[in-house]
Amino acid sequence: MSGPATDAPATDAPATDAPERDTATRSDAPDAPPRRRYELDDRGFREVPKRWRKFYRVWQGDGDTLAPNEIICPVCKVVIRSVREFRAGDRVYCMPCMSRMVIVERADGTLEPEVTYERS
Description:
mainly beta; three-stranded antiparallel sheet
């Protein structure tokens, strides 16, 4: 035997360079600007427990505009809000309809949720 055996697997990159699991997306390149953060307030959405109400609001129709931290659930048409701006690859959960989604970037540059699981 030429050397001592180790139980640690060999890796190409140091462990300190790995991004945090909950914030890493495909669009978070090292040269990408940091995500903007938003302060959320309760908008009166009563279909979820009080603790989670600030993350949802009712879509007001054609005159309503979405901020960079808001996405419309394609299943139940509720606006899902985040404390950070959305980017392609982010995973989103809609508590009112229990759908799971992934944010995708369309050809025109807009971000839209794509449903990966829908409870029927």
